[in-house]
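Z., the sequence and structure:
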Amino acid sequence: MLYAPASNSPEAAGREMTDEYVYDFTPGTTPLLVSIPHDGRAIPDDVAARMTDAARAIPDTDWHVRRLYDFAAALGAGVLAARYSRYVVDLNRDPDGAALYPGADNTEIVPLATFDREPVYRPGAEPDGEETAGRIARFWRPYHRRLAAELGALRERHGLALLFDAHSIRSVVPRFFEGRLPDFNFGTARGASADAGLAAAAFHVLASAEGYSSVDNGRFTGGYITRTHGAPADGVHAIQLELTQRSYMNEAPPFDYRPDLAAGVKPVLRDLLAAMIDWAG
């Protein structure tokens, strides 16, 4: 069992759940905010009790992304990171249920199957519409409220705001793509979520990284967070990076972090965030 039980949650202690229980937030000093929506591992006990053994191992977590970007605060970036697992609610999906990639295989805002098509819930224990709406209200909306508020504050303070949505994924997931994914999957909603100059400066760092492959707006062009919060005409520029986990960890259970691998990729990621901050001037 790899998930973090939520037995120490506010509801278990008889306290009202507030937004601050849903995420961790550290303010920065630059216009850059790093969002980490899929590294959370907490699952409420009543939800975990209905899940399958395969799902309770939370295999689709963006493992160790907080640790991978632990340099962000030293660069002056703010960091917003979710505490709860994407199996509770997916913070990078449309709350109205619209498909992220029409015509392709998509996971739901409350996932019912893992990336390997294993059921998340035992038969008959799947959440209904009312429960899904409740999870959106309790977990999804607080994260997005904080995200929007901080981007607004950054724009007010600096004249613009930069959003970097940090993700990772197994390099081979046949459900979503054929073959092996490039190491760096850079997305700006096909140019709609960020200034072209910013995107070019940021992607140049990745394309120049020796020993790594990269693609600009390939299979992953940016999820709901990037597409919704990125508004270049209003001074908010959003970029998503989907990093292959083979670049910094073991992709098989128990999903160990590999400092030897991470030592190669972290300087590239640091240069990427620094390039964004430099572009903002």
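Residues 4-280 form a domain with the Aminopeptidase fold (CATH 3.40.630.40). The longest helix spans residues 129-158.

Let me know what you think.
H.
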